[in-house]
Protein: Cyclin-dependent kinase 5 activator 2b
Organism: Clupea harengus
Amino acid sequence: MGTILSLSPTSQKTTIVVDGPEPNEKSLKKHSVLESALSLKRFVTSSARRNIGKKVNPDPQQLNNENLKKAQHLSPNRESVPVPAVPSQDPPLTPSQSGKKVISVQKQPSNLSLVSPRRVIVQASTGELLLCLGEFFCRRCNKIKGLNPNDIIVWFRNVDRTLLLQGWQDQGFITPASLVFVYLICRETVTDNVCDRGELQGIFLSCLYMAYSYMGNEISYPITPFMVEGNRDTFWDLALGIIDNISDKMLQINIDPHVFTEVFQELKGEGETKDAKGSDLDR
């Protein structure tokens, strides 16, 4: 066997001849089929690699057309099956297109309007309210002869002065607010059955002790300035009776400004009633 290499100077082609048995036609066809198959495989593989990673988004309209074509090929004897279509985003229907009536509801004005409570301003000095408190006692305890409004004022001021002089308090207790609170306790405690001055003074001092204990600036107060002739049992009986009867009202006047204003007006009205009666007698 030998190999002959021949070069053609005109065609610039290289021809390689291998000595050996001559290939038959069948072998040549086999080689050509294998080469074409390999080239096709390489082409398909390269095409598949290029298409990897590409996301295919089907067209909704094309899917609908294909589904309709498939439905048309069905035989007439078979029941037609509805082919689902890809939903498309349609604009919202107007009230006329949907066939429904849209009723606009407007908020009607209410007959009940929110009205803020009327602001009441009550003005009175400490001296005026002290006199009004004395007038209340004279009107309530009309069975006590010779009772003067100044008697109530003197009893009140003596207790307050004693506590200041003995160092039980740093400032006086008598103010318009405290007078309103004292009036509330006395109004609920003192009855018109009292006919003795000493008895009235003992009841009034017990009312003062409860007012001082509840509204005073100090933590505690002595009971001696609030007792008459040292009768402790009577004093404590009256004090406990006030607690049992009007504890809720004492708390209410402290937290509700409307209640305080009503009691304030009532106390001031005690002096105005006296003035009205005096003017009527003068006429």
